[in-house]
């Protein structure tokens, strides 16, 4: 068998490349570990900035205090409902729109017009004031629909799905058409099972988008009790939740610093839990979906 030998330059590049990636990973991981360490530390060391990557005076008092607070639990529940509705709506509409757009102009005569409209709305936005007036005129202020309807059709996800479906073998559909199947039957029984990588990709994108969104909650929700989790965390970090911070500062083991760290870490958990299950599909879905067929 032929053997390959690496040059000194190639070996040096590999070492430098691995070192760079290791440093980049450490820089990304450091803030997370610091937040976790602070959340499990006592009030004194956290207030004195004595915590780096390991808890000092280990305690779970911050989490016990946090789960006894109704505002945090209410906000967590609002975000959970938003993610459930938003991801389902995003995924369904994206798949329904991406399939016909993957067809040729002969199969779908209005395809080019729809593509032009999609690109236009992706590049140009009416702005905050018109969007707010539209949501208000529809009576959606303080409603869950104000958080999920404006982003119901993510155009980038539609383009990913469209390009992925373009690359699927045409012979599969042609064989189904010869057996009398309709486009609906082909989409449901053939295309969707073959599109698992891109479906996992858009589910992950939609989940992250809805879970991390905070600004729309601040704009469209007048009732603080209807804030999603990230909007609530924003108010806490900005020290607007004065009663919570003052109550925490009265405790010997919990203060505002440890409480904020615990809330931030709990907000990370759903994404950290979801990503490993979708990661095996993620690279294939985004690469194939981004390549024009």
UniProtKB/TrEMBL annotation:
The chain crosses the membrane at residues 72-101, 113-133, 145-164, 185-211, 261-278. GO terms for biological process: transmembrane transport. It comes from Paenibacillus antri. This is Carbohydrate ABC transporter permease. The keyword Calcium does not apply. CDD domains: TM_PBP2. One of its GO terms (cellular component) is plasma membrane. Residues 76-276 form the ABC transmembrane type-1 domain. It is a multi-pass membrane protein. Belongs to the binding-protein-dependent transport system permease family. Keywords: Cell membrane, Membrane, Transmembrane, Transmembrane helix, Transport.
